[in-house]
Design a protein that fits this description.
This protein is mainly beta. It has one domain (about 1-140): Herpesvirus/Caudovirus protease domain (Serine Protease, Human Cytomegalovirus Protease, Chain A). The chain is about 10% helix and about 50% strand. Strands 2, 3, 4, 7 and 8 form a 5-stranded mixed beta sheet that branches. Strands 5-6-1-9 form a 4-stranded antiparallel beta sheet. The radius of gyration is 15 Å and the shape is globular.
């Protein structure tokens, strides 16, 4: 069984992150993806490892609209529970962990906007509470029909 979706949606505003809103520009992760070993987790918990790029079980694609992913799920309780939550629609968003290297600020609105132009990413996660509502995930089958 696999999951796929959008881990980071470009040009999409986040929820309020405690006094500011954030937006990721396309190619912000470009350099980082060339060298990073990105992990796929459930709810940002490293004990809930689902896959990683270095093993080939997580594949990432940087597109014009966002950071797309596909992950081969392990046969674990965590992965099986996660796939059920996604299939039911209880869990349908993603998040990520990054270290911002370069950004710009826009103070024109009511809430400051941080525009991330370059960042190191080391994790994507399936979550019930995504900061970016434009992210998504779905379960896909390994079996060809």
């Amino acid at each position: 069984m696999k999951i796929r979706g959008t881990a980071a949606a470009y040009y999409s505003n986040s929820r309020n992150l405690g006094g500011f809103i954030e937006m990721i520009k396309p190619s912000a992760f470009k350099q980082s993806l060339k060298k990073a070993d990105v992990r796929c987790l459930s709810e940002h918990d490293p004990q809930n490892l689902l896959g990683r790029t270095s093993s080939g079980t997580l594949r990432l694609q940087d597109t014009k609209t966002g950071l797309q992913f596909e992950c081969d799920l392990p046969d674990t309780t965590t992965a099986n529970d996660l796939s059920k939550l996604i299939e039911r629609g209880d869990l349908r968003g993603c998040s990520f962990r990054m270290r911002v290297l370069n950004s710009e600020w826009d103070f024109a609105g009511k809430v400051p906007l941080r525009i991330v132009t370059e960042a190191e990413i080391d994790e994507i996660t399936m979550t019930a509470t995504p900061a970016y509502l434009a992210t998504d995930c779905e379960v896909i089958s390994d079996v060809a029909v």
